Amino acid sequence: MKIAVYSPYLDTFGGGEKYMMTIAETFSRDHNVEVLLDRHLLNFGGEYLKNELSKRFSLNLQKVSFIEAPVGRGAAILDRSFFLKKYDAFFYLTDGSIFYPTAGKNILHIQSPLVGQPAQSLWGKLKLKGWDLIIYNSGFTKEHSVKNWPLRSEIIYPPVDTDIIKPLEKKKYILSVGRFTPVKKQADLIEAFKSLLNEYSVDGWSLHLAGSAGKGDMDYSDELRDLAQGLPVKFYPNMDYKGLVKLYGQSSIYWHAAGFGEIDPTKMEHFGISTVEAMAGGCVPVVIGKGGQLEIIEDQISGYLWNTIDECKELTAEVISDERLRSRLSENAVSRSKKFNKDKFIENILRISHLTK
CA 252, CA 167: separation in Å to the nearest integer? Predict the structure, then answer.
């Protein structure tokens, strides 16, 4: 069978891209899989994207072809329509824009809340009829999208490499992973850590911030470094996956604050891949109780959820001071992370797509 996969954001190397490329990897074992490149993505080159995605996400994309295609902004409707007809299945990560697809089976992936999108218009409803299924990355994303996207849907949590990430000898590290951008609230975490050091007995502990940082993120990254001056805070921009896996294994506590102070669901964590990765590494998650985090953490069993910075500090101090509690929560976090492993993702993708050799 011939299968096409299209994500307009391959060059951002985020969670949605890992999701889509894992789909490509899965089907490439038995089928002919092509990743479609629009005009923007062609500027990076198919080989570069293939190699970088393989390396960053520890994927085997050797049998996947990256090809130029009439998709994305500026693509002619007729060209796209004729082009997609040759595929037995088509997977598309949408940002809210849709078109009428012509492959044998057409599956949309929505990874962030889409509110008031064009699927509600007459033309939008017509285009939506061409799609067979929507797959959401979390119940949170579905809850904030389904009203405007009235189509049969499934929730399939993202694939997490829980078999690769293992607990190592633990250090006094508090870790947070996320792109260096204001929406991830690293500035709030640095301020929280500064207060934690002043208000509680946490000698020897340090804060470690890892994540991708593109050219447009450098100003914010510099601001964070200025804010952290004089504090035991380390930065790891664009760390390779092997290094990140090691950092997960060494860290004791995981912080996440995306959505803090926000009421807009699009600014909250839509799922929380890095949270699950940290749990697989034995980190105790102490994360904000918003967005997809609520579907990951069993509060007080496999981690803690907080709503205010004061709660974050108090819960963190409790975990630091009680080694027995930290050990129990860590073991439970590792166990919980297995619910979101890559094998389960593959099983669910194959189930909903009904694609056989």
Answer: 9
Return the CATH number of 2-158+342-355, one of 3.30.40.10, 3.50.50.60, 1.20.58.100, 3.40.50.2000. Answer: 3.40.50.2000
**Residue found under tokens 């990951």:** 296
Query: How long, in residues, is the chain?
Result: 357
Q: What is the pLDDT of residue 125?
A: 74
Q: Is residue 356 predicted with pLDDT exceeding 50?
A: no
Residue 98 predicted with pLDDT over 70 = yes
Q: Measure Cα distances from 280 to 26, 163, 167, 253, 331 in Å.
A: 22, 8, 7, 12, 9
Residue from 261, 254, 340 nearest 295 by CA:
340
| Number of C-beta neighbours around residue 226 at 10 A | 9
pLDDT digits (tens, 9 = 90+) for 123-171: 777 788 899 999 999 999 999 998 888 889 999 999 998 999 999 999 9
Average pLDDT over residues 231-254: 95
- Which ranges of 129-175 would DSSP assign to H, the alpha helix? 139-143
Q: 177 - beta bridge partners?
A: 210
DSSP of 181-212 = SGGG-HHHHHHHHHHHHHHS--TT-EEEEEE-
- Dist CA 149 CA 134 (whole Å): 9
User: Exposed, middle or buried: residue 214 (CB in 10 Å: 0-12, 13-18, 19+)?
Assistant: middle
- Report the predicted TM-score, pTM, of the whole model to 2 decimal places: 0.89
